[in-house]
Amino acid sequence: MTSKRTAITVLSAMALAAAVIPFDNGPARAGNGAAFIGGMLAGHVVGGFARRDKARTQADMYRTYHPATTTTTQAAPATQTQAAAPAQPAHKSVEQRLQELDDLAKKGYVTPEEYKARRKAIIDGI
Amino acid sequence: MFRKAFVVVGIQMLIAAVAFGAEAIDLTPKYLDGTWTLRQVENCGLKEFEHIAFHRDGTIETSRHGLVDALGFWRLEDGLVRIHLLASPAHYSDAFKDLTDRFDSFLITVMPLAVDKDAFEAVGAIGEQMQREKLFRCE
Known about the structure:
The complex is a heterodimer of chains A (126) and B (139).
Chain A: H1 2-20, H2 37-65, H3 67-75, H4 78-84, H5 94-106, H6 112-124
Helix pairs in contact in A: 5-6
Chain B: H1 2-20, H2 29-32, E1 34-38, E2 51-54, E3 59-64, E4 67-77, E5 80-87, E6 104-113, E7 119-126, E8 129-137
Antiparallel strand pairs in B: 1-2, 1-8, 2-3, 3-4, 4-5, 5-6, 6-7, 7-8
């Protein structure tokens, strides 16, 4: 039932696209010429990497601002701690968290507003 | 509500699109068999335009500049062409040019419209990506 509905939605979207999307008369990627399947794959590949990068950044930020998660991991049995060790560093000091925040800001992962808010939150937690 | 309206409008567009191509030739595996290029038949001789080769044995390859970009399998199903492709991201963006040893699989759905003797319009979709092109058969 769900797959049928999904198929109808996909068909509808494609039919709608057929009416709405203009023919692409420009190059599908750098250079002369054009690619139909290549154009779609290029967009999908680049978009996929961008989405993964964004997800990774969000995961980094989550770990930075939720040290409680790290504490829980430390309390877990030895085998689980070993498995989580590469992704979950030990409890971070305020200085380390501020440093990490600075690094994220320098790399453009957080806006100035987010930087100020998170910095205040870290300092308020002392 | 919006989704329902979207589906209704989409189905109407589909019917219109099918009606538009009603006089055209039947879409069969035999029809697709061969090499196709984009936009105009003259581009068959230009290597910078993608060439898509549908083989009778169910395999497919896309190429530009005389080099294969992606290869895989295709099948016709309910008027749609389902294409499973294997390709390297290095083929599609300079940003990934170092990833020549990495290959990913992709599923692309293509809806052929206005099917004519040696040309058809194709609307393709993969994930959120959609593209529309006119394909021409090469000799």
